[in-house]
Amino acid sequence: MTVMRPILAIVVAASVVTTPVRAGQDETTVYLSLEQAPKSLFPGAQIERKDVPSTPDFKEKLKAKLGRVTPTVWEDSYRTFTATQDNKKIGYAVVVDEIGKVNPFTLIVAATPEFRVRDVAVMVYREPRGGEITQKRFLAQYKGKKSSDPILLDRDIVGISGATLSVIGANRAVHKALSVLELVYQ
Amino acid sequence: MTIGGYGSMRYEDNTLDKPKPGSGFDFRRFVLTADATPNDRLQAYVEIEFERLAEIEVERAVDRGEDGVAFAEELEGGDGGEISMEQMWGQFKFGDPFSVRLGQILVPLGRFNINHDDDKWDIPRRSLVDRNVPVLPVKAAWTELGIGATGSRSIGKSGQLSYQGYVVNGAILDFAIEKQVETEDGQGIQKLASEVSLTRGPVNGEEGVRAGTWRVAYSPTLTTDFGFSGYIGRYTPDFLEVDERITSLGVDGLWKRGSFALEGEYIHTDLGNTDRVVNAFIDTVTGSTGIAPLAGARGTETEFAITDLTPSRRGFWLEGRYKFWSERWKDSFWAKGFDNPQLVGVVRYERVKLHNAIDEVTIENGEIEHGDAATLRQERTTFALAYRPLQTVVFSVATEFNRRLEGPVLVFPRGFTERRYATILAGLAFGF
């Protein structure tokens, strides 16, 4: 059977017509830079950055606030942002890392002034699997969540087959982000 | 590189007459996976499976005595043990909706075969359709060597369309040679049996590329997903001098609402004119004389058999799952130390039909035995309760109720004449 020939032709043709994706960096896909991330979640707003060191005291308070949620990454400092539009505060954002299976991925979580999730975006993904969590339709589930919500797989978050550990990591990341923002800005 | 894997075992007992098949502890499998993404456009994946395999021991010896020399070789291992390269592929991403995958890939027929890791399922046994019968041309996890394209694209605000399509070497009627020692009429005999049955395709490039397989899936939202899949390919080997094809079609879906999920799959497989295949087999073995070969040398017997041919098979499974947990249990033994423990109640109903199934055609001791063809139907209902302290660890208990609906024997386990039987199962599966 010579079915290989047309398939190879399709493969070669597709390589010509499709545009290569962004250049990769060793097991890492960068979706948003630190500069782009807050602007993409608060388009048109003025962004002010504030780095918050994770002092032992801050970490203790964060631990207490997180309760049953145990992060896999404790950052040395948190890069937080305040967004202002027409002299009115429209929200906050923070960059956090969490481990999916082996490697940490980086998320930016934006919250409303009432500390409910406004938007979530994956900035950097470093795992060979579970990349489905970067899909907008998955991340849209977090909108409106607050730190007292369960934010748990199969309770208030719908999972994705083949990306279970990454989904669980994303849940922890959102929980941690909301807690950090509450500690810094509330 | 990320190392991972999964494993599972179970305890089983059933009401079938002795000798009971599959009762006792069963080491189902342990699978090691390695996943590497050296660049975001390149990915490699390997899955090596140890199935029902505790050990393999080979002993070889040369013994020189007064009368001469003896060479001895002994192979020890458990029944049904297998080491298998379940997957081994590399993938090159051309663009977001288009990647080329090359290697030993999972045949995307139905939804179970491509999503078969034991820790993802709450019942400690795979389905009749995908494994026990199977209706799939080759039991899950079914992999083939080939090349093809895979990708997905967002449709609208929350939709996702994904596809996979490959050309592969393809499933084939392959032979295995068995050696047996039997007692017959008070004397010991050695029996050599050559059995021809459907298996995954060869990986040595000798039988050519014979098949194509594909799956298209659409997920309008995160909670709904349905797919349409197929497999078409020649399965008769060159030595049989007939040309018959497998045509399999599958429809599957998943729907979630809150804590409830409904998942299912239907597969139809057609094997063409199996009478022609059987006649070609007899023709080949008898050298076109129609005269069956006699027994071998004194004290030995030879047998040629072609097994489990069915012109068509079809079947489905439908599984409902309800996940629950009460906050009141948060300080209990079952919750302590776990973020999100869950209990899952599961009901699965499945039904299979083998149309005009021939269990075996044998050529033995100068005689051709052609078993009667019979249509076999069986249904199975399974109730299970699973406890998941973590998403990747599941302890489960289950009860199966099997019923023979048509034909003189059960489809699974094949050959038993009981009208009904029940099974209890207790299992553990884990992923890491």
Task: Put the structure in a nutshell.
Chain A is α+β, with helices and mostly antiparallel strands. Chain A is 31% helix and 26% strand. Chain B is built from two helices and 22 strands.
Describe this structure in words.
The complex is a heterodimer of chains A (186) and B (432). Chain A has 186 residues and is an alpha+beta fold. Chain A contains five helices and six strands, in the order H-E-H-E-H-E-E-E-E-H-H. Chain A has a six-stranded antiparallel sheet with strand order 1-6-5-4-3-2. In chain A, helix 3 (56-66) packs across helix 5 (164-185). Chain A starts with a helix and ends with a helix. By secondary structure, chain B is mainly β. Chain B has a single domain (2-56, 78-431), classed as Porin (Beta Barrel). Chain B is built from two helices and 22 strands. In chain B, strands 1-2-3-6-7-8-9-12-13-14-15-17-18-20-21-22 form a 16-stranded antiparallel β-barrel. A two-stranded antiparallel ribbon of chain B has the order 4-5. The model of chain B has no long low-confidence stretch (mean pLDDT 89). Classes of the chains: A alpha+beta (186), B mainly beta (432). Chains A and B meet through helix 1, helix 4 and helix 5 of A and strand 2, strand 3, strand 6, strand 8 and strand 9 of B.
